[in-house]
């Protein structure tokens, strides 16, 4: 297991699914963690259970981000890891998506992720010993193979992939020891997938049946990839993408 015992982390969307699994995993690996979520009741409950700090946060509120990173630095003395995990689906095709749905989905999935990267880099630059840290952004296999039923989700997650690369190269060129990588989960048993199932009954079973591993992912399996990228085990990985999809995007159509 990666050793994160000298690390401090912020995990957004920590109240559920992949964020909750990441909270547990980074804690088990030794990190001090500030979990955040728009769902204050469940987020605070889970953080207390795990032994993490909690702050209520709407990641789309870009003005709040510097306060969130400042809180982590205030609590722990430095910021080493940011996991930009919070995300939302919208379930609208190109013909029925409204401006409001489009704007809110983008505000959470891409603007929130950008603002998190910006605030984290400012905090990581001030770390004792010089600029250092690891940012992990969460995209989706929907950023690589589109769902016609959710144009805003797919396209905003596509933007997350290139955002990560731009952040990674900027930090490298500036000489900061700050890496930025993307984890790309496939269909994973969480709240987002349950929301999609409500709109498309039978979706989960259908997706599991077409998966080469014949099942959905467990959030802990995505959290393991996040923990690896957050650790010092992969200093030459930046701007990279790690697929955690059970082989779903690797299979040739028809097989
Ligand atoms: N589950 C999947 O199949 C799957 C696949 C690919 C990518 N992802 C991505 O994984 C990430 C985590 O999603 P999940 O599957 O664990 O879903 P989830 O619904 O279980 O968890 C999402 C969490 O984000 C929080 N959240 C939503 N909007 C927020 C906001 N504006 N500010 C702060 N917190 C907010 C929710 O309260 C919730 O706790 C998302 O970015 C999602 O797009 C999930």
UniProtKB/TrEMBL annotation:
It comes from the Bacteria. Keywords: Oxidoreductase. Pfam families: adh_short_C2. Belongs to the short-chain dehydrogenases/reductases (SDR) family. This is SDR family oxidoreductase.
């Amino acid at each position: 297991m990666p050793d994160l015992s000298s690390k401090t982390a912020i995990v957004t969307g920590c109240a559920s699914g992949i964020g909750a699994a990441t909270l547990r995993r980074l804690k088990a690996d030794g990190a001090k963690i500030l979990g955040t979520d728009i769902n204050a009741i469940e987020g605070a409950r889970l953080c207390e259970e795990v032994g993490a700090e909690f702050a209520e946060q709407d990641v789309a509120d870009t003005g709040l981000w510097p306060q969130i990173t400042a809180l982590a630095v205030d609590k722990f003395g430095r910021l080493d890891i940011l996991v930009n995990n919070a995300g939302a689906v919208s379930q609208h095709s190109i013909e029925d998506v409204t401006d409001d749905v489009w704007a809110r989905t983008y505000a959470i999935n891409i603007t929130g992720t950008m603002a998190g990267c910006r605030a984290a880099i400012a905090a990581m630059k001030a770390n004792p010993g010089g600029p250092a840290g690891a940012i992990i952004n969460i995209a989706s296999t929907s950023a690589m193979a589109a769902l016609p039923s959710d144009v805003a989700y797919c396209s905003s997650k596509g933007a997350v992939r290139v955002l990560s690369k731009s952040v990674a190269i900027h930090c490298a060129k500036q000489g900061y020891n700050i890496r930025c990588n993307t984890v790309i989960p496939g269909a994973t048993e969480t709240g987002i997938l349950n929301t999609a199932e409500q709109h498309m009954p039978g979706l989960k079973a259908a997706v599991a049946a077409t998966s080469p591993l014949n099942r959905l992912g467990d959030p802990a399996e995505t959290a393991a990839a996040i923990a690896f990228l957050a650790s010092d085990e992969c200093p030459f990985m930046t701007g990279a993408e790690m697929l955690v999809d059970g082989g779903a995007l690797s299979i040739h159509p028809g097989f």
